[in-house]
Amino acid sequence: MPETTPAYPAQLPHVLIDRAVEAALAEDLGLAGDLTTQATISPQAEATATINAREAGIVTGLALAEAAFRLVGPGLAFTALLKDGDVVKPGQDVARIAGNARLIMSAERVALNFLSHLSGISSHTRKFADALAGTKTRICDTRKTTPGLRAFEKYAVRCGGGWNHRFGLDDAILIKDNHIAVAGGVGKAVAGARAFAGHLVAIEVEVDTLEQLAEALAAGALAVLLDNMDNATLVKAVALNNGRAKLEASGGVTLERVRGIAETGVDFISTSRITMASEPLDLGLDIVIV
């Protein structure tokens, strides 16, 4: 089973939040600002608004929503009614905003885009994590993320109960099939990685067959990705490994199949489905003129 000591919650650097939200606001407001709002709403109009869940899920991205209302202009008060990772029910309010009506309107879509997208990833991840309850296996993401949003999407995975794989090409070594083909075999690739890497750099090698797994273990691999193996082969891989390396199953992972994969005894299951196949959580902003 995984460690029983609870992990501290994931946290996003504020500089990443503000940078992403500023770019999104600039994209949406363009050079002339919100024409519709300027044409229909008095500059002095005040309003209150709530962000409300239209369906059940896991809410994530409140700091980005707050940043949207903070950075669009001065004078808005944002109050989060939940925290990232909380379960939200249909009809439940997630946050409250008060202040200048024009600013609320102009920041609404950016705030909801981030919040709905990340909440959708957390909600989808939670389904996979719940399917693994009672096993030792953890569900992990991959590098298949929306360009420019990787840090946020991986954060959403954590808020949904999943775990992060490497963030980029520079924080771990993952020897894949193409590396092996060019290097001249699993053993040579693993040996080269061990000779190159510093003592704090993790090394994992991807294998497609039990023969490659045996070669990886003989070369001293401490983490092996078992790519696109059926459950019967995964059981044999776990037996062959006999606890020597951490085993990660990947490829063809679906919500219907994930429990069976975990029951083969692998340590991790990685899938892009929790980031790339999640649907946005249906959230909306309702405004009331003061």
How would you characterize the overall build of this protein?
- By secondary structure, the protein is α/β, with parallel strands linked by helices.
- It has two domains: 14-120 and 279-289, Aldehyde Oxidoreductase, domain 3; 130-276, Alpha-Beta Barrel (TIM Barrel).
- It has eleven helices and twelve strands.
- A six-stranded parallel beta sheet has the order 6-11-10-9-8-7. A four-stranded antiparallel beta sheet has the order 3-5-1-12, covered by helices on one side.
- The longest helix is centred in the middle third of the chain and has 31 residues, at 101-131.
- The radius of gyration is 23 Å and the shape is elongated.
- The termini are far apart.
Structural key phrases:
single chain; 290 residues; Aldehyde Oxidoreductase, domain 3; elongated
| CATH-defined architecture of the largest domain | Alpha-Beta Barrel
Roughly what percent helix?
Answer: 40-55%
Shape descriptor reads: elongated
Kindly give the count of domains: 2
User: Uncertain spans, ≥5 residues at pLDDT below 50?
Assistant: none
Compact summary:
With 290 residues, the protein is an alpha/beta fold. Helices cover 41% and strands 19% of the residues. Strand 9, helix 9 (231-241) and strand 10 (246-250) form a beta-alpha-beta unit.
